[in-house]
Amino acid sequence: MDGALSLHRGHLPPDADGPDDGEVHVDLASTAAFRVEHISSGRVSTPVEFLQLGDEWVVVLEGSAILEIDEERVELGPGDWVLVPGSRPHRLLRVEPGTRWLAVHGTTPPT
C-alpha cells in the first residue's frame, strides 16, 4: 500500500511531578500532517503566551490549568480538551504542578 503509515507503538511517560518550573515536552508521534506530544507542567510564575501557526488540540490527562484564549478564561481538568485554531495567541495563566497533557499540533497551513 503506497503512502501507508507503518505501525508504531509506544507508552506514555510515567506519572511525574513535572519540572520545578516550566514544562517538559516529549514528542510521541509525527507525520507530515500532525505531531503528538506529551507535556508535563511545573510551576508557572508568570503567564506564558503561545502562538502556533497550525491548529492545536490539547487535553488534560491529570491536574488542572487555566488558559486564556481571545480574552476568555478556559478552565481545564482531567479529560477536558480545547481546540485552539492556528495563529490564535493563547496564554497559560495557571497550572497545577504535575499537570499532564497530550497535544496534537496540525501542520502549518500552506503559504
From TrEMBL:
Residues 1-24 are annotated as: Disordered. Gene3D superfamilies: Jelly Rolls (2.60.120.10). It holds the Pfam family Cupin_2. Residues 52-92 form the Cupin type-2 domain. InterPro entries: Cupin_2 (IPR013096), RmlC-like_jellyroll (IPR014710), RmlC_Cupin_sf (IPR011051). This is Cupin domain-containing protein. It comes from Actinomarinicola tropica.
